[in-house]
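Forwarding the complex inputs:
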Amino acid sequence: EVQLVESGGGMIQPGGSLRLSCAASGFTFDDYAMHWVRQAPGKGLEWVSLISGDGGNTYYADSVQGRFTVSRDNSKNSLYLQMNSLRPEDAALYYCAKDYEATDAFDVWGQGTMVTVSS
Amino acid sequence: QSALTQPASVSGSPGQSITISCTGTSRDVGGYNYVSWYQQHPGKAPKLMIYEVSNRPSGVPDRFSGSKSGNTASLIISGLQAEDEADYYCSSYTSSTTVLFGGGTKLTVL
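Prediction (whole assembly, two chains):
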């Protein structure tokens, strides 16, 4: 079964850092680009970041550029999102998602991990 | 970058057809055939319904179809069913090598 499981969310103060993880199973992980997408409570979806299958190329939304870093460890079938200088507007449910055949569509999603930024 | 523009809500009766629009610019929707549509039920992760403007992944009913004209993409749902009631989001690849989502549309089946 193809599956993505996120972890690492929690409550953090503004300015703090958090590292999210996403464990993949059921597919050849390094064959696929991976994305992070977030959704603030009661709001719409917002794309956050993309990393290529070999990890050599990364891309970010303007709203997180310079603060967030995406990485992957293909030997562990794992995706990560290092989030620094967190702001209240970063509070959201963070999903990892698998890219569908290089179309920038997301065919497999995790259940999400919640990040709360509050003092 | 601003989100793609979707109507906040649409509604239809069972058996009817509805269309949800998604308007962008030549730097995203109009410039590439990488438009996707997602269905999201409350408390659930989104589900891919359409990719590359008009292609359906395996398992998605053929009641769901997609199209594009200029800078506007559309999701068409025919033969509406109660279980189609959900939020729908479009997304597009952009010239900045990023992905942009629409603001979402709440579909109500009357």
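The mean pLDDT of chain A is 96.
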